[in-house]
Amino acid sequence: MISCVQFFTAGVIASVPMLLFDHPTWSAIVAAAAPILYAGVMSCGVGYTLQVVAQNGVDPTVASLLLSLESVFSVLAGWIILGQKLSGRELFGCVLVFAAVLLVQIPTEKLFKVK
Asked: Is the pTM of this model over 0.85?
């Protein structure tokens, strides 16, 4: 239920600047209906709702670590599925984010030998 309220609220809030700054025409909206519906239904509706349901039974620490890897997963999916090319800098960024996520999982007692 909360995801439905969030989608509706975000849609209403995003519609105001769209109407003020973009000036869409009905023909443009109709021409882009399939991508708009796909992005709205699949990305927001299905993806976010499944995320909320899946997080319900997961340890909060594990969930936050997985969500912090979202940018790495999206870059890798674009690379594998869409064939996008990554620069050395982008690959280094992925490695850096992944290393940071792994580093925060190490208990502090092992890092600093706290007694």
From this structure: no
